[in-house]
UniProtKB/TrEMBL annotation:
UniProt name for this protein: Tr-type G domain-containing protein
Coiled-coil annotated residue ranges, if any: none
Boundaries of every Tr-type G domain copy: 36-265
Pfam families per UniProt: GTP-eEF1A_C, GTP_EFTU, GTP_EFTU_D2
Function: This protein promotes the GTP-dependent binding of aminoacyl-tRNA to the A-site of ribosomes during protein biosynthesis.
Positions of region (Disordered): 1-29
Entry keyword annotation includes Nucleotide-binding: yes
Amino acid sequence: DTKQDIQAQPNQAEPTVRNREIPPVQDQEDELDNQKRHLNVVFIGHVDAGKSTTGGQILFLSGQVDERTIQKYEKEAKDKSRESWYMAYIMDTNEEERVKGKTVEVGRAHFETESTRFTILDAPGHKSYVPNMISGASQADVGVLVISARKGEFETGYERGGQTREHVQLAKTLGVTKLLVVVNKMDDPTVNWAKERYDEIESKMIPFLKQSGYNVKKDVMFLPISGLIGANLQTRVDKSICSWWDGPCLFEALDAVEVPLRDPKGPFRMPILDKFKDMGTVVMGKVEFGSVREGDSLLVMPNKDQVKVVAVFIDENRVRRAGPGENLRIRLSGVEEEDILSGFVLSCVANPVPAVTEFVAQLQILELLDNAIFTAGYKAVLHIHSVVEECEIVELLQQIDPKTKKPMKKKVLFVKNGAVVVCRVQVSNTICVEKFSDFPQLGRFTLRTEGKTVAVGKVTGV
C-alpha cells in the first residue's frame, strides 16, 4: 500500500483544516528572499539501525516534542518490554509499527536549526517496505544513512541482501545527492566509542558508496552518534566520551549541506503523492520546479484536467505562494478527488509535463534475479517520482561501453548484471515523465522485480 498517512506530530492537533476557520493568509511576498531555506531529509538504512530512534531524538532535542510525551512513550515501551524503543515511538505512530518495532509508513516531521527548516522523512528499513522507502527518498534532498556500529549488526546490513546496500543505490537513483553516513550505537558496550570500529565501517563503506556513484570527497560525510542517548546530534560529543572525534555534530553537518539551487521561475511541476477531500479536493506533494500561488490555473496531468488553486498550505500555514523544494497541500477547484491518482503531476498550462505510454531510457542493470535474462519482453515494476506502474522492455537499442561511455557497435539482444543499456520502455497506463537532462527529478527511476531492485535508470527520450 503506497498510500502515505500523514501523521500528526504528537504534540499537535490533527493537521487537517476540517471544521475549523481557515487561517488567514500570511503574506510572504516580501519575506521570500530572507526566508530560511527548506530541506527534505530522508533517514535510510537497514532495519533496526536506529533510524526512528535518531529521528525521535532530533525532534525531542529541537523542542518539537515535550518531556511529558516522552515519559508517556517511555512507559508504553516499558509495558511492551521494549525499553530502548521509546524514542522511536515519536516517529512510529501506528500500533503495528510499535508492536513490531518496524517502521512501515514514511513518518514525517519538522524541525529547524539556525539557518534551515527541515522536513524529516523516516523511511522503513525492512525489505518488504522498500516501495514506501522509495516514495520517501524520492522527496528528499539529503539522505542520512544510519548504520549500526554494534557487533554483527553492521555486517548483517551490509552483506548481500542487507538493506544498507539497496538503500544507498536507491537513494542515489532517486536523486539524493548528498549523504550523511551516521555510525549509530557508538555507545553500545560492544563498541564503546572505539575509533577502530568506526574506521572499519568507514573503510568498508567508502568503496561501496563510490561504486554506487557517490563522490565521497564532495557529497558524503561520516560521523559517529548515539541516537538513543542523543550524543553528537545537537551538540558535539564530549571529549571525555569520544576523545578522537573533532568533527561536527549532526545538526551542524545538516546545516552545512549545500544543495543545488532550483529555479523558482521554471515551469511548475508537482508530482502528487496523495489526495483527500476537504472543502474541495486537496492534493499533497513536493514542488520540484517552479512556483505556485493562490489563484493560479494549472493542469492535472496526464488527464489534462484544468484546475484552479484555491489555497496553498506549508505545514499548518496558509501561504500566498510557494517555491521549489516545499512540501505542500494545495486545495484545487475544478476536479473531483476520485479523478486524481498518486503519480499524477500538477503542471503549468503553458508548458505541461509530457504524458507517455512509452519512453527511451538508459538503464544500469544492478542485479537480476537468479537465471533472469534482461531482454525485450522483460517485465518489471517501474518507480518514477510518485508513480508505481508495471512496465515492459520492448526493445534494447544499444549497449553502452562502461569504459568509454560510448555505444557499442554490435547489435544487442540481451544483457547481464552490471551492463548499461539504452532501451524502449512501455507502461500499461499513461504516465508523466520528463527527460532527465531537462528535469532530473521527473526523469530518474528504478525497476523492481519480486521485491528487489534490479535496475536504475534515467529517461533520455519521450
